[in-house]
Amino acid sequence: MYQVTVNNKISLSYTEELCLSEILSRCGLLISVPCGGQGVCGKCKVIAQGSLSPLTETERNHLTQQEIAQGFRLACVARATGDVSITAEEIPQVVEIDFSMEHCNISHDFTDGLVIDIGTTTIAAVLYRNKKPSKIITEVNYQTSYGADVITRIAAERDHSGVLYSLLQHQIENMIAACNYPKNTVIVANTVMLHFLTGQNVLPLGEAPYQTADLFGKTYPLFGTTCYLAPCISAFVGGDITAGILASRMTEKEESAMLVDLGTNGEIAYYNKNKLFTASTAAGPAFEGAGIFMGMPAKAGAINSVSLTNGTITYTTVGNTKPKGICGSGIIDALAVMKQTGILEESGAFLEEHPLCSLDFHGRPCFRIPGTEVILTREDIRALQLAKGAIHAGMLTLAKQVDTLYLSGGFGSKIKIENAEYIGLLPKHFAKTTVALGNTALCGGVLALFSKEERRKLSEIAAMSQSVLFHQNPDFTDRYIEAMLF
Hints:
Layout: E1 2-6, E2 10-14, E3 18-19, H1 20-26, E4 45-52, H2 57-62, H3 65-69, E5 72-74, E6 79-87, E7 113-118, E8 122-129, E9 132-140, H4 150-159, H5 163-178, E10 184-189, H6 191-198, E11 218-222, E12 225-229, H7 239-248, E13 257-261, E14 267-272, E15 275-280, E16 302-309, E17 312-317, E18 325-326, H8 328-341, E19 357-359, E20 365-368, E21 375-377, H9 378-398, E22 402-408, H10 410-414, H11 417-422, E23 431-438, H12 440-450, H13 452-464, E24 465-467, H14 474-483
Parallel strand pairs: 1-6, 7-10, 10-12, 13-22, 15-24, 16-18, 22-23
Antiparallel strand pairs: 1-2, 3-6, 4-5, 4-6, 7-8, 8-9, 11-12, 13-14, 14-15, 16-17, 19-20, 20-21
């Protein structure tokens, strides 16, 4: 019988070799594993001591010599073969959201209730009493311990049957219980999350032809209350997007408009002359920090801006603390600075003779933000090229230009638009006006919470939408290849 201690407080006995991530799971400790345990992202670093499997080549590729000396291992790769102790950083319980109802006119059929936005990364809930928010709950989606994106999580469901359902359902039930089981509850989420929530089979959503069991848009008895689940449009354009379209009011104006969610799935909605087109492009989680060597969420220590002034590169961090990594807004700025200084070539390669070109711990070219240990590697640049190319090409495939471009999500409200255009994430001069709206899914959910008419509008939005499949569109492919250049 072997013993393991986690964070000096949780003990577990076991008899067979176990992967460190499995040990942490059995101890009830969830860590972020963006790649779903495939050993390719390097984000599940823990400190482990004791009887362990030998260091693997995969770990050597992701760990610096300093980290190896300190006892770091990858939880999804390293195995415990005897008594061990593990020190791991848990998924944070509270996260920040960018949420405001200032731009929305609310009509009231109801005065109280709960709205929950189940994001792939973050879950946010707002409880209303007498038309005013009385409690806000924000948490990281516990499913992130099984992957950063929905496709990875669907694959994880095959290997861990029922686990991802239980994680999400338990988390949402606890939120509802913490709000004393309100009678009026609205939930907005992408299609996959709603399938997990309602216990419906997600596996057909993970492979062509991506079939849905339900597109929702009605009430369900869940966790001791009646929940209205916002309608989805397709397998990868969900209720969070219909709610976002509602919150933007883009279908109620006499102008062309586009809503872009710069998250993992890269959802895009385009409205013009009473026609609504929606699509999803596989942007991946690169701009959310996942899959980037030193990428991280926008929390303390994350570089969130980089600038070049009179030849000097400066940066800021969240919380004004020592830099530990870089988040999405900082990544966009860093790419812009790299392009301005000439270290980054059009193809995405580093100009190795450039004075700003440094070497990573493998001795390969990289860009190191001056005055820090934070770097962007050539693999990072490749992932970012794929992500920006997907968004850029998707936008231009749906429209050449629009009157108003709405950016949805917290990331969209924090980026510098001029830098996003400069690196090619957004097409240049694409919109006459660009508006960052923050968490439009939650805003749309609040509108639907209070008003039967807003729920009717949500159903109209879903019904009028025409889905566009980019993988069947040759124009998208051509634009995608071109948009990968800097």
